[in-house]
TrEMBL record:
Signal peptide from the UniProt entry: 1-22
Keyword Protease attributed: yes
Alphabetic keyword roster: Hydrolase, Protease, Serine protease, Signal
The protein's name: S9 family peptidase
PANTHER family: DIPEPTIDYL PEPTIDASE FAMILY MEMBER 6, SERINE PEPTIDASE S9 FAMILY MEMBER
Every Peptidase S9 prolyl oligopeptidase catalytic domain range: 447-656
Entry keyword annotation includes Cell inner membrane: no
Taxonomic source organism: Lysobacter arenosi
SUPFAM superfamilies: alpha/beta-Hydrolases, DPP6 N-terminal domain-like
Protein origin, superkingdom: Bacteria
Length: 667
C-alpha cells in the first residue's frame, strides 16, 4: 500500500535553461551534452568496457500483470522500455501489445466476469510520474485515454464485473490524492472521496456497490474505510490503538466479511509485525490467521470463485508463498519454490491456478503458475540473461553485524546481504561497495542484481546491502528508530558496517565505496560527510542533499507524506536538526570522490538537490562527476540511459575504488 511515487518541479527550476553546475566557469568542469544526456567530468567510456558490460546490461525480466482468459499479460522490455505483452501458453511466444517510448506503469486487466477484453495501463512523460490512465482494447487494438491528461493518476481498480472502475487522482486541486470512480460503459467519471490526503481504492464488494478504501499517512499510519459508491457516503473503521499500518484489504467472498493485513493492537497489546486477519462485522468474529508467524505479511489475493486466498510472508528478506482454503482457512499444499522474492499474485479466472512473479539473486524475474490441485509449478516465461552462464552467478549470504546501541543488553544486530566473489585467492583483500536502499522505509532484498554480478564476476568486487534501522520488514520498533531527530542513527549503522568490514579477512577496508538512490542517496552523502577518511568514493543517485530544501521543493501532493517521516521543516526545532544533519551544509567534510546522477523531471527529489551538492563540493576544490538526463525522473528507466549510467558507474569504481591493477576490462 505504501505509495512509491510522487511530485512536480517548481516553476523556477523549469525556467533554468542549463543546469546550475554547468554554468560554473570552473576550469575543472568538462561538460558534454549528447541528446538528452548532460555529463560533467565523466571521461569517455572505453569501448572495451562497454563490450564487457554488454551481456550484463542485456539481462531482462518479466512480471505478471493479469490474466486474459487462458492467456496472461506480462510486462517486459524488448527495446528501450518495459511494455505490455501477452503469453498464451507456458514458455509460449510473447506478443507485444504496446510500443511506447515511455515505460508503462500499472497494468490492470479487465475482470474475467466482465464482457471487456483488454486492460488499463498508466504512462507518464519523461519520468515526471504524472501518469495518465488508458484503456487498451484487445479486439480492436485501440487505445482510449481515461484520465484528464494533466493530473497524477494511479491505482487503477475494476469492480469484479467490470462495470465500474476506480482510481486515485490529484485532478481536483493538484495537492490531494482523491478517489474517483467511472462508469466504464459510458466513461463518465466523478470524484468519490474528497476528504483530503492520499486515498487508495482497495477492493470492490462482489456486487460493486461498496468500495473498501484506505487513507495513507505514512509507513506507520493508515486508516481504512468503506464507501457507498452510489451515495458517496464514507464510513471510517475504528483502528485498535488509534494508530496502525495497513496493507492489503479485501472483501471475503460473502461480501460482508473482510481480510486485511495490519499491525493493529490485539487485545490491547502492541504488534511488531503485520499479520493477516479476518473480521466479520456482523457477527463480531475476528481471527488472526498468521499469529504464529513472527514476520510481516506482505500481500494477499482472493480467487474469484471464493475458494482460495493466497498471501506472502517476508521472512528476513525472503518472500514465502502461502495459500489457504476458504472458508476453512486450512493451508493448501504447494510445490517447493525457489528461494527469493514472490510477488504479483493472481488467480486464474477459474480459480484453479495461481500466477506469481518470482525473482532470485541468480535469476531475473519470471512468471510461474502454481496448479493448486496438483501442487505443481509451471514456468511461463524464461527471460534472457544476456548469454551469461547462470551457474556462475553469485548468490548472497545473509549476515548480521553489531551496531552502536543495544537491545536487552546485547548489541543491536543489523542484517545485510553479502555478494562475495567466488574463488578469491587466499590472503587477498578485495574492494567492497555498500549499496544502501531508499525509502527510507524500503528494504534490500536478495534479488537479481546484474551490477552486483558484474562487480563480483568481472572485477572481483564484493557488494553489501544493509538494512539499516528504519527499514521495513523487521518490525514496527525497528522501522521507527530513524524518525525525525534520530535520522543520523541510520548513518551510524553504516559506520558500524565499516567496522565489520575491517574485521573480515577477505575485505579491504582501505577500498570501500558507497552507492544509493533517493533516500539512499542522502545516506551516501551523509556517510561521506562522516566517514570520508574511511570511504574512498560514493555514487549518489537522485539523492536528498538538504531536507529543508527538499521538503520545500518536492511536489505538493507528497510533502505531508514526507514530513510524517522526516519531520516538519516549518517547526523551528526540526529545521535546526535539518541544518545540522544535511550534507549540503557540511560539503567541506566530503573529501571522497563523488559521482552524482539525476533525472531532470524528478518530481520527488527535484534536480536542484543534485545541483546544489555538486556546486558545494566543487566549491571546496573537490572534482565531482555529474550526470543529468532530461528525459528521466526519479531513477532511470530507458535502456540507453540505464546502460550509459551503468558504464559510467563501473568506470568510476575502476578509477576511484578498485585501483589501477584492476581498472581495465578483462583484467
Amino acid at each position: 500500500m505504501t505509495p512509491r511515487f510522487s511530485t512536480l518541479l517548481p516553476a523556477l527550476l523549469l525556467a533554468c535553461a542549463l543546469p546550475a553546475a554547468a554554468q560554473s566557469n570552473s576550469p575543472q568542469v568538462k561538460r558534454e551534452q549528447v541528446g538528452n544526456r548532460t555529463s560533467e567530468n565523466i571521461p569517455a567510456i572505453p569501448p572495451a568496457l562497454m563490450e564487457q558490460l554488454n551481456r550484463y546490461q542485456n539481462t531482462r525480466g518479466a512480471t505478471f500483470a493479469g490474466w486474459n482468459g487462458d492467456c496472461m499479460l506480462i510486462s517486459t522490455r524488448f527495446a528501450e522500455t518495459a511494455q505490455a505483452h501477452r503469453v498464451c501458453q507456458p514458455l509460449g511466444m510473447r506478443e507485444q501489445l504496446t510500443f511506447y517510448a515511455e515505460p508503462l506503469a500499472a497494468i490492470e486487466a479487465a475482470p474475467a466476469a466482465s464482457k471487456l477484453d483488454g486492460f488499463v495501463f498508466g504512462k507518464d512523460v519523461g519520468g515526471n510520474e504524472f501518469w495518465q490512465l488508458h484503456w487498451f482494447d484487445l479486439k480492436t487494438r485501440a487505445t482510449t485515454l481515461l484520465s484528464d491528461g494533466k493530473a497524477r493518476n494511479q491505482g487503477p481498480l475494476f469492480a469484479h464485473d467490470g462495470s465500474r472502475f476506480a482510481w486515485s487522482s490529484t485532478a481536483r486541486n493538484g495537492k490531494d490524492t482523491d478517489l474517483w470512480v467511472m462508469d466504464f460503459a459510458t466513461k463518465k467519471s466523478r470524484a468519490l472521496v474528497t476528504e483530503g490526503g492520499l486515498w487508495n481504492a482497495m477492493d470492490f464488494s462482489p456486487d460493486g456497490r461498496q468500495l473498501l478504501v484506505m487513507k495513507y499517512v505514512s509507513a506507520a499510519e493508515a486508516y481504512p474505510g468503506l464507501v457507498d459508491v452510489d451515495s458517496g457516503k464514507l464510513t471510517m473503521f475504528p483502528v485498535d490503538g488509534g494508530k496502525a499500518s495497513f496493507k492489503g484489504f479485501k472483501f471475503a467472498p460473502d461480501g460482508k466479511s473482510v481480510y486485511f493485513i495490519s499491525n493493529e493492537q490485539i487485545d490491547d497489546r502492541a504488534q511488531e509485525f503485520h499479520s493477516l486477519r479476518f473480521h466479520n462485522p456482523a457477527t463480531g468474529k475476528f481471527e488472526v490467521l498468521t499469529a504464529s508467524t513472527p514476520w510481516d505479511v506482505e500481500d494477499l489475493e482472493i480467487a474469484d470463485d471464493g475458494r482460495h486466498l493466497a498471501y506472502t510472508t517476508n521472512e528476513d528478506g525472503i518472500y514465502k508463498l502461502h495459500v489457504l482454503a476458504l472458508p476453512s482457512h486450512k493451508p493448501v499444499k504447494l510445490p517447493e519454490l525457489p528461494i527469493g522474492l514472490v510477488v504479483n499474485l493472481g488467480f486464474s479466472p477459474d480459480g484453479k491456478r495461481l500466477a506469481v512473479t518470482m525473482n532470485s539473486a541468480t535469476s531475473p524475474s519470471d512468471v510461474h503458475v502454481v496448479d493448486l490441485g496438483k501442487a505443481s509449478l509451471t514456468r511461463w516465461t524464461r527471460s534472457e540473461v544476456g548469454g551469461l552462464d547462470p551457474a556462475k552467478f553469485v548468490a548472497p549470504t545473509l549476515v548480521h553485524y553489531p551496531t552502536f546501541d543495544t537491545v536487552d543488553g546485547k548489541p543491536r544486530m543489523i542484517p545485510a546481504f553479502y555478494y562475495r566473489p567466488a574463488n578469491v585467492p587466499a590472503g587477498k583483500r578485495i574492494p567492497v561497495v555498500i549499496n544502501i536502499h531508499g525509502g527510507p522505509e524500503g528494504q534490500s532484498l536478495p534479488t537479481f542484481n546484474p551490477t552486483a554480478q558484474f562487480l563480483a564476476n568481472e572485477l572481483g568486487v564484493a557488494m553489501l546491502l544493509p538494512n539499516v534501522r528504519g527499514s521495513e520488514g523487521y518490525g514496527k520498533t525497528f522501522l521507527d528508530l530513524d524518525n525525525a531527530a534520530k535520522r543520523e542513527d541510520s548513518v551510524k549503522d553504516i559506520g558500524a558496517l565499516l567496522d565489520w568490514i575491517g574485521q573480515q579477512p577477505e575485505l579491504d577496508a582501505s577500498r570501500i565505496g558507497v552507492y544509493g538512490g533517493s533516500y539512499g542517496g542522502y545516506m551516501v552523502l551523509s556517510s561521506l560527510m562522516h566517514y570520508s577518511d574511511r570511504i574512498k568514493a560514493g555514487i549518489d543517485v537522485v539523492g536528498i542533499s538538504h531536507f529543508g530544501t527538499f521538503l520545500k521543493n518536492t511536489e505538493s501532493y507528497r510533502r505531508d507524506l514526507r514530513r510524517a517521516e522526516y519531520g516538519d521543516e516549518r517547526d523551528p526545532q526540526m529545521a535546526q536538526v535539518f541544518e545540522q544533519i544535511s550534507p549540503l551544509n557540511h560539503a567541506d567534510r566530503i573529501a571522497s570522490k563523488l559521482f552524482v546522477a539525476q533525472g531532470k523531471n524528478d518530481p520527488r527529489v527535484p534536480y536542484s538537490e543534485a545541483e546544489q551538492i555538486v556546486k558545494a563540493v566543487r566549491g571546496n576544490g573537490q572534482p565531482v562527476w555529474y550526470l543529468l538526463f532530461d528525459d528521466e525522473g526519479h531513477g532511470f528507466r530507458k535502456k540507453s540511459n540505464v546502460d550509459y549510467f551503468g558504464a559510467a558507474s563501473i568506470l568510476f569504481w575502476q578509477q576511484n575504488l578498485i585501483g589501477a591493477e584492476q581498472a581495465q576490462p578483462g583484467s
